[in-house]
Amino acid sequence: MAPKKLQVAAAGLGRMGHRHALNFLNRTPRAELVAAFSPDPAELQWGKQHLEPFGVTLYDNYDKMLEHQGLDAVVIGTATSVHAEEAIKAMEKNLHVLCEKPLSTSIEVCKEVVEAAKKRPHLKVMCGFSRRFDDSYRDAYNKVEQGLIGRPTIVRSQTCDKHDPSGFFVAYAAWSGGVFVDMSVHDIDLTLWFFGDDVVPKSISAHGVVAVQPGLKQHKDYDNAVGIVEFWNGKIAHYYCSRMMAHGQEDVTEIIGTEGKLSVNLNPQNSLVNYYHSGGITREVPAHYYGRFEMAFVREANEFTDACLDNTPLPMKLRNAVKAVEIGAWLQEALVTGKQIHFDETGKRIEKASL
Amino acid sequence: MAPKKLQVAAAGLGRMGHRHALNFLNRTPRAELVAAFSPDPAELQWGKQHLEPFGVTLYDNYDKMLEHQGLDAVVIGTATSVHAEEAIKAMEKNLHVLCEKPLSTSIEVCKEVVEAAKKRPHLKVMCGFSRRFDDSYRDAYNKVEQGLIGRPTIVRSQTCDKHDPSGFFVAYAAWSGGVFVDMSVHDIDLTLWFFGDDVVPKSISAHGVVAVQPGLKQHKDYDNAVGIVEFWNGKIAHYYCSRMMAHGQEDVTEIIGTEGKLSVNLNPQNSLVNYYHSGGITREVPAHYYGRFEMAFVREANEFTDACLDNTPLPMKLRNAVKAVEIGAWLQEALVTGKQIHFDETGKRIEKASL
Amino acid sequence: MAPKKLQVAAAGLGRMGHRHALNFLNRTPRAELVAAFSPDPAELQWGKQHLEPFGVTLYDNYDKMLEHQGLDAVVIGTATSVHAEEAIKAMEKNLHVLCEKPLSTSIEVCKEVVEAAKKRPHLKVMCGFSRRFDDSYRDAYNKVEQGLIGRPTIVRSQTCDKHDPSGFFVAYAAWSGGVFVDMSVHDIDLTLWFFGDDVVPKSISAHGVVAVQPGLKQHKDYDNAVGIVEFWNGKIAHYYCSRMMAHGQEDVTEIIGTEGKLSVNLNPQNSLVNYYHSGGITREVPAHYYGRFEMAFVREANEFTDACLDNTPLPMKLRNAVKAVEIGAWLQEALVTGKQIHFDETGKRIEKASL
Amino acid sequence: MAPKKLQVAAAGLGRMGHRHALNFLNRTPRAELVAAFSPDPAELQWGKQHLEPFGVTLYDNYDKMLEHQGLDAVVIGTATSVHAEEAIKAMEKNLHVLCEKPLSTSIEVCKEVVEAAKKRPHLKVMCGFSRRFDDSYRDAYNKVEQGLIGRPTIVRSQTCDKHDPSGFFVAYAAWSGGVFVDMSVHDIDLTLWFFGDDVVPKSISAHGVVAVQPGLKQHKDYDNAVGIVEFWNGKIAHYYCSRMMAHGQEDVTEIIGTEGKLSVNLNPQNSLVNYYHSGGITREVPAHYYGRFEMAFVREANEFTDACLDNTPLPMKLRNAVKAVEIGAWLQEALVTGKQIHFDETGKRIEKASL
């Protein structure tokens, strides 16, 4: 008898959602995509062409999709605003959940999801921070674990997007939570991975400018921002996020330890080709994050599937996803208010008056 | 109704064969692996564990496998000595064929396969030169096609393996056809791609040494060899092949044109990580060709499948596979005899006496 | 008649001083080293061997050296604490001055030097920020001037030293002014260069740790620190300084503009050699700043000489040297107090109460 | 008393000659440029402006310059055709000689110089192969000496010039000795350095094309050529020379040993700057060999001076300069005739009939 395959439904078939759907359809051998939902007729039309012929049932109603016979798990790639509600509903139907980041831009809502998951410890509930599934970050992490750099002390990490002059990110800023929540949350998650989940912030500073997207000002957001998070155990992370790169996606991380250092993607490249011409030697850079992290998303789908089928631990804790958003929100607050934020050794925020 | 999937059988489940089988099983959405054959009990045992549970029927007899109901295509990954016979048998059963390189180390036998394929133009018969399916080589090829480097004039290409002290390659040399046929055939195939299939060799020189595998001498083979092929239309390719690399696989190609140059993989890397330590900055290198070319094999399986299902042209001509082996064999001859080989403008070999 | 050569005296023959002396002796064709001073017998002994035979008169008294017949200029490479006094004395003797950075760790004292220089506009008085004389930084600056990156918006710059376990830097911290004044002052100077001398800070944040040199705590200094300076015209600089590198000196700068980016020394290297071995591919890194910037010091000596002899403008303003130290001192204050510092649009500091 | 400085005269003030003159004038502390000769009025005019004011006596007659009072050494940077004659004349006047490469394009003439030098063992006579004085090649050589790569087995070395469309090299080809003698002679010299001076060639093959300078055909020369030299002790060198590079000077060497590999300048760069723009990431490349090797020429002048003053051994043997030209001439012969050349184990050439 053929081994059981995980029966998966995909919620959302937009920018990220359709990629998750295709990855579970085609690149996750132990999973079977059986259902997909979108509230958007255009997305459903796409599904009719690319999913339905392969046996995927389409739904325009999320609740109905959850009733799909034999369903084991849901991958949520809808708009951030409905992530949490959909995740909780899925858990209530006893389904495993792989949710696109973030669970929510509201910490309170994030915590509700964590609470819901805690009550159902037999379910696998993961918020996908794709970089944890990237070969190069895994390689770096293993080298840290082997002690190659001594005690990790400084993380420098940046998420820098190619400039998109379409204005998309201006509209998006209205509900994205701000650049630190939307972009740097990945860098913060990596920090929690490399420094340990239990690190406690001591103080947070952030500064930003609006350089190429003046419309961002109306949403109190920035297109370039720099932030520092100091932790109580003698560690510091500093971040740079930007939507202004001319050359493409440039997501770089350095982990500096007492005895060595690791860099990840310091020299971004689109392929192994260099072009030599009268102006010098040029290499191209991926235009988007999916060009950089495509295989990480594939691995994420596969490792999530393994954990569900084999009842093994997920490679990352749901709680971290909340902590990363929380730190991102503090950075954003420090950025917008222009004021440092301080915490005591238990992580409790110290109000300014008490300083 | 679900779209038709290509029904594929895999012949051979050894080093390369089992990878083809898994790629058709798991990473080729439009294909279905339905059967697999191996004459080797250990390989069949592996198949029992990794293929049979997923609906793949196992055979210990190649001819019987060809009778598998509904079969469309065979991927041949057995020992080189049986490639040609198996390919011809498959064609006789009206099956498409994807055959590991080379078709044979004998040019005569290669040509028989080409003849057999010519008689069945409706069949897709491809000899897999994986580098043609590699993203970076595709990128380089597109840049050449766009005219970025003017007229391609010089190809420098090397296939260099990590030193394997096990002695495997000494035994292998008995029937591999020699290093130029076994290793440089990839570089020659790339040359035909970048220079055009119709290039005619003018003269061939080669020199080699036995540096780390003295046992090779008994098979008149070498562990390091350098060769030059001059073509009649003012183009030159030079090759280096080695089985002596300390650091890993290093397959580099440069295409030098009248107005620019392209390099592929000049700086090999295993991941995007650099490790900084008291001795400097180090990056690791893939240990084997599959570490470098895994995704090319996946793409090969998918493009072969597309061509079969859609009856579209294959991305490379079967005849080239013969031409690449033929040039490889001449290089090997020049290497072993220590004598240059010359050709007239029609490609006819000029015997020494007539020089 | 031979062209006039600049008659130069060197004050200080220690770590940096002896290099200045040798550069003026041997590598500055239009200058002639005629005198040298040191209060330290060991340094004088070195001078007896390396300078005296070539016609350089040695002094153990700075004032007497200033009386040396025909003297035109003094290069000051003594301890920081006497830089200012020696510079002012030299000006009083109508001598041009090239002074090692910083003029002083006290802003007040720095300003006195600037005042003294203002009164003698015919004298060339320069505080040597060597990176302004480095080929690569010059190249980057020219590209910015050509508009290649649009409007410079973000500077990221780091000065990172190889870990010196000798304890030297613990003692040194007692009077160095702290890491931001001692190390990052170079990065701040570069910022003033790339952003323009007239930029006005808006707010300053800094955080640091003591990771490998616990003795630094007694001097309220740090071995790793991160700081952000936000300027009023929509520009941001962020800095990292460290004395903990395992691999060597790593001074990196990125200048990010609205239409492109420049990096300087992102991949440090000691030579053009890569070493391929069983652990991968390794390149070495200069162990010290002089390994990275030696030729910049040579160029500095030459350009200073040219300005003196030809009465042409110096390549950098003395006032900037003060401004760089001032910003460094604010960063250090923010680091030590754990509090952000704010400024109004005229650059006047805003006290906390008024926020 | 000031230490004795080497009194040097410069012969030739053209392309290379004026650089030698300036290096001895300004960048060789232990030498003093006292005289210079050129037969060319324009070059003498340059000397009037740049040398005479600094005490250098100019001559339009080589023999007269040799009579210059107190002269110790001559640096010869005139046209190749007079190198040998001038070198021998200088030796006859008991002067040390640093001669630009090659001594001559005629092996016979080269040997006469060597003979003349043998008779005067107290004189230092060096033919300048600048790469032996380059920091990076020195670094590589030291690593080989330390045994880091085991037994050196393969050298790949290329000298590739930026395309000069002026036609200069067509005229130059009339008397340059051909590309292998003019360009690859550096790579051959490096081979002798890395493999040992006593290596005996076994066979030589070469192939070339005229791709961008059709005028070269009249001089039986090529703008791209590839050659292989096999040595009797199990070593192979292969060379590529080109005058067709779009991007600049690209002189690369790889030394491959039984246990590791070294590369020199695999990624040429003009400075440490990378420019990030909408087309990717670009670094510039030096346009000419002096951009790559300037400091090697300076070091050459200094080490030659040291050897003369201290009567210490020169860093390279004069005989090697002949051997390098000899191998270059054989490569050129193999290139032009299209025939391999063979040698017996004593290095005696084996004529074709005897094969």
TrEMBL record, chains A, B, C, D:
Family: Belongs to the Gfo/Idh/MocA family.
Gene3D superfamilies xrefs: Dihydrodipicolinate Reductase, domain 2, NAD(P)-binding Rossmann-like Domain
Domain Gfo/Idh/MocA-like oxidoreductase N-terminal: 7-126
SUPFAM superfamilies reported for this sequence: Glyceraldehyde-3-phosphate dehydrogenase-like, C-terminal domain (SSF55347), NAD(P)-binding Rossmann-fold domains (SSF51735)
GO BP annotations listed: NADPH regeneration
Domain GFO/IDH/MocA-like oxidoreductase: 137-262
GO cellular component: cytoplasm
Source taxon at top rank: Eukaryota
MF (Gene Ontology): nucleotide binding; oxidoreductase activity
Annotated protein name in UniProt: NAD(P)-binding protein
Lineage: Eukaryota, Fungi, Dikarya, Ascomycota, Pezizomycotina
Pfam families, per the entry: GFO_IDH_MocA, GFO_IDH_MocA_C3
InterPro entries xref list: Gfo/Idh/MocA-like_OxRdtase_N (IPR000683), GFO_IDH_MocA-like_dom (IPR055170), NAD(P)-bd_dom_sf (IPR036291)
